[in-house]
């Protein structure tokens, strides 16, 4: 059905540089005719509201017990969000993973976001889909102002959005919900395969790190539940006995002061560690000399661990880099191979999560990492284990990489499809009408993928 979609027969120029041509019969309506800005602070009643955040998955309800993400110190400055409101992040737009979300929840969100209520002159899901499509390619750059790449709310309200008839908007939403469901099922199937392969890989690593390679050697109790029995000639050592733990640094507040950035020194965040396969190979921010003076530069090859936001993720720097105090680096003693400690940390993530305090930050501090225990064979045996793990997991890694690439292609296709449909490049009216009857009820629901397993940057809680 998707392959049979055709363009409309007649088009006109929209006059908007990010949009180009639209179908001849579509209107172009200023946003102030479709939505209205609303800001109601929750104040002392904040305990009566659920905490929401705008993420790549849309507007979600936060679970502070997970220890993931950042939280405002003053919840009273949060603003009310109602089911059906549209939440926008209108600053730092090029760097923001997702700038728009339609809330399906009542709750509160930090006051730095902009909340719009629908004037019910169109389908609010179509409005969200249109601006998601613009956001995916960051096409609204002509609207940015200042160093923070901000879109003033007044300018956004004066910007025009294409408006098919309400019936056609409903058809677009219906069709994209159906198409998204098909694509999401394919993505989830591949995720399940990846999860099974990762479980198999983790089992290989855990057995090698805790039992070694010779199944005939006598064992002894390690005294540590996650380790279990270990070869009798191995030792157990605390992390602080074999490594020096150095916390990252960025002491200046506010952290987003532009005068510290755009220099020669890479500056990674917890998301860079979380996304690393093993080596941290990408960065999106850099510090200048002024930024370096309030931070700390770690050398290439440093083993890093996240202690806030994404707790217990590990990676190895592939370049000299600075990072904030939400990441720690390890300097090892001679009797420990860096990559062996990396494998041990992969086995220990559940221990780190369990040891993180359950509060508004859920951080894992240096004092909690140091006393953790690891099994420690001799240096030569560590190297043998590393070689064995690399050999045994190479084929699994290849299949995982291929499945991840296939997921990326499906997501790219979905993004392109949404953009083509909401901007009128493809006509879905006939296709929507042919969908099974049970598919044709227009009910509020998620049009974005349920991507809860997808690694993302820290949940964005901006400072206003």
How would you explain this protein's 3D organization?
This protein has 464 residues and is an alpha+beta fold. It has two domains: 2-186 and 404-439, Adenine-n6-DNA-methyltransferase TaqI, Chain A, domain 2; 213-376, Adenine-n6-DNA-methyltransferase TaqI, Chain A, domain 2, CATH 3.90.220.20. It has ten helices and 25 strands. The longest helix has 46 residues, at 166-211. The two termini are 45 Å apart. 32% of the residues are buried.
List keywords for this structure.
464 residues, alpha+beta, Adenine-n6-DNA-methyltransferase TaqI, Chain A, domain 2, five-stranded mixed β-sheet, four-stranded antiparallel β-sheet, 10 helices, 25 strands, 20% strand, globular, disordered C terminus
Order of strands, main sheet, comes to 16-24-21-22-18
| Assembly annotation | single chain
> How large is the count of helical segments?
10
CATH class of the largest domain: Alpha Beta
Parts with pLDDT < 50 across at least 5 consecutive residues: 442-464
Strand content: 15-25%
Q: What is the CA–CA distance across the termini? A: 45 Å
- In total, how many domains does the architecture comprise? 2
Largest beta-sheet characterization:
5 strands, mixed
| Mean of residue pLDDT values | 89
Measured on Cα atoms, how large is the radius of gyration?
Answer: 25 Å
* CATH fourth-tier homologous superfamily of the largest domain: DNA methylase specificity domains
CATH topology grouping of the largest domain: Adenine-n6-DNA-methyltransferase TaqI, Chain A, domain 2
SS-based class: alpha+beta
Q: What is the name of the CATH architecture of the largest domain?
A: Alpha-Beta Complex
Helix content: 25-40%
Label the overall shape: globular
Q: Would you report the number of β strands? A: 25
């Amino acid at each position: 059905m998707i392959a049979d979609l055709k363009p409309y027969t007649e088009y006109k120029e929209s006059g908007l540089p990010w949009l180009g041509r639209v179908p001849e019969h579509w209107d172009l309506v200023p946003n102030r005719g479709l939505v209205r800005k609303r800001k109601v602070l929750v104040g002392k009643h904040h305990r009566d509201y659920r905490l929401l955040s705008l993420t790549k998955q849309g507007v979600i309800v936060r679970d502070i017990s997970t220890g993931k993400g950042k939280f405002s110190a003053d919840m009273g400055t949060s603003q009310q969000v109602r089911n059906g409101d549209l939440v926008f992040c209108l600053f730092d737009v090029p760097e923001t993973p997702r700038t728009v979300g339609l809330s399906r929840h009542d709750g509160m969100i930090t006051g730095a976001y902009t909340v719009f209520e629908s004037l019910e002159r169109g389908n609010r899901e179509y409005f969200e889909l249109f601006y998601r499509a613009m956001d995916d390619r960051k096409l609204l750059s002509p609207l940015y102002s200042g160093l923070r790449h901000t879109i003033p709310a007044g300018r956004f309200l004066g910007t025009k959005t294409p408006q098919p008839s309400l019936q056609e908007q409903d058809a677009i939403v219906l069709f994209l919900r159906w198409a998204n469901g098909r694509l999401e099922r394919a993505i989830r199937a591949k995720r399940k395969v990846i999860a099974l392969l990762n479980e198999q890989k983790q089992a290989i690593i855990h057995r090698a790190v805790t039992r070694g390679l010779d199944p005939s050697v006598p064992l002894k109790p390690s005294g540590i539940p996650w380790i279990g029995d270990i070869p009798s000639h191995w030792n157990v050592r605390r992390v602080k006995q074999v490594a020096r733990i150095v916390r990252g640094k960025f002491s200046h507040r506010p952290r987003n002061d532009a005068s510290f950035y755009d220099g020669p020194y890479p500056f990674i965040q917890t998301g860079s560690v979380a996304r690393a396969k093993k080596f941290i190979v990408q960065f999106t921010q850099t510090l200048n000399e002024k930024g370096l003076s309030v931070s700390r530069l770690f050398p290439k090859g440093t083993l890093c661990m996240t202690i806030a936001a994404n707790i217990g993720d590990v990676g190895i720097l592939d370049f000299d880099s600075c990072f904030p105090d939400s990441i720690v680096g390890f300097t090892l003693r001679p009797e420990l191979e860096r990559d062996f400690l990396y494998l041990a940390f992969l086995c220990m993530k559940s221990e780190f999560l369990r040891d993180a305090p359950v509060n508004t930050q859920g951080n894992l501090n240096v004092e909690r990492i140091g006393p953790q225990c690891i099994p420690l064979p001799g240096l030569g045996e560590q190297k043998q284990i590393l070689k064995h793990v690399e050999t045994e997991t190479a084929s699994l890694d290849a299949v995982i990489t291929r499945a991840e690439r296939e997921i990326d292609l499906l997501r790219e296709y979905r993004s392109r499809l949404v953009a083509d449909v909401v901007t009128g490049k493809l006509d879905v009216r006939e296709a929507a009408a042919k969908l099974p009857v049970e598919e044709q009820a227009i009910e509020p629901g998620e049009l974005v993928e349920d991507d809860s397993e997808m690694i993302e940057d820290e949940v964005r809680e901006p400072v206003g």
